[in-house]
Design brief:
Layout: H1 16-47, H2 50-77, H3 80-103, H4 109-137, H5 143-171, H6 175-193, H7 211-224, H8 226-255, H9 260-287, H10 290-304, H11 307-310, H12 314-342, H13 348-377, H14 379-399, H15 401-404
Helix pairs in contact: 1-2, 1-5, 1-6, 2-4, 2-7, 2-13, 3-4, 3-6, 4-13, 5-9, 5-12, 7-13, 8-12, 8-13, 8-14, 9-12, 10-12, 10-14, 13-14
C-alpha cells in the first residue's frame, strides 16, 4: 500500500497547528464572502452601473491569469509563512481604507479599482504559498482529511454566506468591509502562532536563477509527470463547461419562471452537494484509486448534465445541481492529495500556480463565451452540447491507461 494511505489518519481537529490554520482561514474566508457579495452593491450605489461592478469583480481573475505563474515561483523562493503573513497584513490594510474613505466622504471608483488590483496580487501570492505549505503542516496520510476540511469550509460559507452578507450589509454599508479588514489581522495572529515549518530546508544557491527560468523548471517537471499533466488537461477542459454552466443554469431557471430567490436556491443546492462531497471525500479517497475517482466523476457529470435541460420545474434543477456537485469535491481532494504528496516541496508553488492558472483561464473563457453560445444555440441546445463535451472527456479518461491506473502515489 502507498505512502498516502498506508497510515491511519490522526484526528486533525486535535492537531494545534491545523486548528490554527483552519480557524484563521474560516474567519478570513467569511470576510471575503461578505465583501464579495457586498462590493457590487456598493459599486451600484456609488455609480449606478452594474457593468462597473462586474469589471471590478472580474479583476481578480484577470490578475490571477497574469500573475499566477509568478506567484507560484515566488512562493517557492520566499519564506512561505512570512509571505502569507505580509499578504494578510497588506490585504487587511487595503480593505480598511474603504470604510475610512467612506467615513470622510471621499470613497470613489479609482480607489476601489486600485484595491481590487492589489488585493488580487496579494490573494494570488497568498494562495500559492498556502497550498504549498499544507503538506508541511499535516502528515501525508492526513492530506485528504485536511483538504476535505478546507473544501467543507468553503462550501459551508457558500451555503450561509449570502444570507449573512445580506444581514451585514443591511446593518451598515461598511460593516462587511470592516469585518473583512479585521479578519485579515485575525488570520495573521493564527498564522504567527503555528509552530510547524511551512517549507523544507533548502540549500542556498550562490547564483539564484532568473524567475523565468524557475517557472520553466516547474513547468518542465509538471510536463514530465504524466498523471498530473493528463488530469490537469482534463480538469481544464471540464472547467470550460463549468464556466459556461453558471450562466446557462440561470437562463434555464428563468425559462422555468424561477424568481431570483429560487435561482439562488438552486445554487445553494449545489453548495450543499459540494459540502456533502467534502464530508465524504476522505473516506472515498482512501478506499478508491485516483483513476477510478476521476473516471467516475466525469461520467457522473456527463450523465447528469442533460437533466438541466430536461427538468420541468426549477426545484428539479436544484436536485440536478445537488447531485452533480457531490462528486467534484471527492475528485478534487483525491487529485490535490496526490499532487501535493508527489511534488517536491521546492516545486509545489510553481506546479500549483501552473495548474490553477490553466484551470482558472479555462473557466474564465467558458464564462466569457457562454452568453454568445446561448444566444446562438439557445440554452437547452447548449446544455446538450456541453453534455456531449463531458461525455467526450469521460471517454478519453476511460480509454487513457495513465488515468485509469493512477493511484495515490506513483
Amino acid at each position: 500500500m502507498d505512502n498516502l494511505t498506508s497510515m491511519s489518519p490522526r484526528n486533525l481537529w486535535r492537531q494545534r497547528d491545523f486548528q490554527l490554520l483552519v480557524s484563521g482561514r474560516l474567519v478570513s474566508q467569511l470576510g471575503d464572502q461578505l465583501q464579495f457579495l457586498a462590493l457590487p452593491l456598493l459599486v451600484v450605489a456609488l455609480t449606478g452601473s452594474a457593468t462597473q461592478a462586474g469589471v471590478l469583480l472580474g479583476l481578480q481573475t484577470v490578475v490571477y491569469l497574469v500573475f499566477g505563474l509568478v506567484a507560484g515561483a515566488l512562493a517557492d523562493r520566499w519564506d512561505r509563512k512570512a509571505t502569507m503573513i505580509w499578504c494578510e497584513i497588506g490585504r487587511g490594510s487595503l480593505t480598511a481604507t474603504i470604510p475610512i474613505a467612506a467615513a470622510f466622504g471621499v470613497l470613489g471608483m479609482p480607489q476601489l479599482y486600485t484595491i481590487a488590483l492589489l488585493n488580487g496580487v496579494l490573494s494570488t501570492l497568498f494562495g500559492a504559498a498556502n497550498s504549498s505549505a499544507l503538506p508541511n503542516i499535516v502528515a501525508k496520510s492526513d492530506l485528504p482529511g485536511a483538504l476535505a476540511a478546507v473544501g467543507a469550509i468553503s462550501s459551508g460559507l457558500r451555503v450561509a454566506g449570502a444570507a449573512v452578507a445580506g444581514l451585514a450589509y443591511a446593518a451598515g454599508r461598511m460593516v462587511p468591509f470592516v469585518y473583512n479588514a479585521a479578519s485579515f489581522f485575525a488570520s495573521v495572529v493564527a498564522l504567527r502562532s503555528i509552530r510547524a515549518s511551512f517549507q523544507e530546508e533548502r540549500a542556498k544557491s550562490a547564483s539564484p536563477r532568473l524567475l523565468v527560468a524557475e517557472i520553466g523548471h516547474g513547468l518542465a517537471w509538471l510536463w514530465r509527470n504524466p498523471v498530473i499533466r493528463t488530469l490537469a488537461l482534463l480538469d481544464a477542459a471540464d472547467k470550460l463547461r463549468y464556466g459556461a454552466g453558471y450562466l446557462l443554469i440561470i437562463i434555464l431557471a428563468q425559462g422555468l419562471n424561477a424568481n431570483p430567490t429560487q435561482v439562488g436556491i438552486v445554487f445553494t443546492g449545489a453548495a450543499v452537494g459540494a459540502l456533502l462531497g467534502s464530508v465524504l471525500a476522505p473516506a472515498l479517497t482512501r478506499r478508491f484509486r485516483l483513476g477510478a475517482l476521476s473516471v467516475t466523476m466525469l461520467w457522473v457529470e456527463a450523465l447528469a448534465f442533460p437533466f438541466y435541460a430536461l427538468a420541468p420545474t426549477w426545484w428539479l434543477l436544484l436536485v440536478v445541481a445537488f447531485a452533480e456537485s457531490v462528486v467534484s469535491p471527492v475528485y478534487n481532494v483525491a487529485l490535490d492529495s496526490y499532487r501535493l504528496s508527489v511534488t517536491p516541496d521546492g516545486l509545489r508553488g510553481r506546479v500549483t500556480g501552473a495548474i490553477d492558472t490553466l484551470t482558472t483561464g479555462a473557466a474564465a473563457l467558458g464564462t466569457m463565451v457562454s452568453g454568445a453560445l446561448i444566444a446562438l444555440l439557445g440554452a437547452p441546445a447548449l446544455t446538450f452540447v456541453l453534455a456531449g463535451w463531458l461525455m467526450l472527456l469521460a471517454l478519453v479518461a476511460t480509454l487513457s491507461r495513465t488515468v485509469r491506473t493512477a493511484t495515490a502515489t506513483e
